[in-house]
Amino acid sequence: MKKAMVILLALALCFCTVGAFAAPPKVGMCIYKFDDTFMSYVRNNIETLAKGNLDLSTQDSQFDQPKQNDQVDQFLTQKVKALAINMVDPSAAKVLIDKAAKKKVPLVLFNREPGDLDLNTFPNVYYVGAKAQESGTMEGQIVAKYWKAHPEADLNKDGKLQYVMLMGDPSNSDAKYRTQFSIEAVQAAGIKVEQLAVDTAMWDRPKAQEKMAAWLAAYAGKIEIVFANNDDMALGAIEALKAAGYFKGGKYMPVVGVDATPPALDALEQGTLLGTVLNDDKGQGTATYELAASLAAGKPAATTVGKLANKDGKADAKGHYIWVPYQMVTLDNYKQFKK
What we know:
The chain is α/β, with parallel strands linked by helices. Helices cover 43% and strands 17% of the residues. The termini are far apart.
């Protein structure tokens, strides 16, 4: 009997030991704010992939960088094996990198690109995202194609495209580059432009609706195109336009955005959104998860989404970037992106 008990205890100890070794590594993740539509898709994808593979804890930073700094400190105190951080303020990247480096914890930054920062300062820091310049260029190309095909879009027949621009967070490079490169792409197509108004709506749909309503009152009959740095703001502008009688009885206003979120694709199908640019939430989420999982397990950085590259996008086995490409989305191809 005693011999049998000894054997059972030994087996139990063995199983406990195996279980301890098999426990998934702890990873801490912060999202700059949970109610951002695009980031909710990225977050859901990461959390789905992590189930059974990572002990993942996710925090809402509520658009508050000091709060996010505290959340990172808490994760480090909990001895996480890796961090995945969607920064509130990209200019705070060095603070987060220094925190991770001090504890020798790998760090994956994603979606909100750090500013002019050398990621080589810490061997185990990486960035996953898309080049905002590309999304701006594609927005502009969508508008240029429409403008040339629809002479009636030039409401005052002055040969210039009069536009308003809804910007995201001015501290975010995506907002800066989408604003700049969208207009440059229109001009590169040989189209003269005139800016009527530009202001930030902080990526937010209600704020964009409010801004657009004010612009419709201030520039009655003068606005010919609405640019938005993301789809949520484009949809906010569309709500204001609907309230002003647009999209019925032949009254139309072209609106473009970025992200290709499901609500935006619905608006495109309904004819209220001219076009958008796919910001690949699945690709960004998958690359972030795979990098964090590899690093947390003590393995080299690796992802199936793309190869490591330098900041300029050139493949580099020692690079610290994974660039996920954008795709132009219009009425011609939107169905292939519907989920």
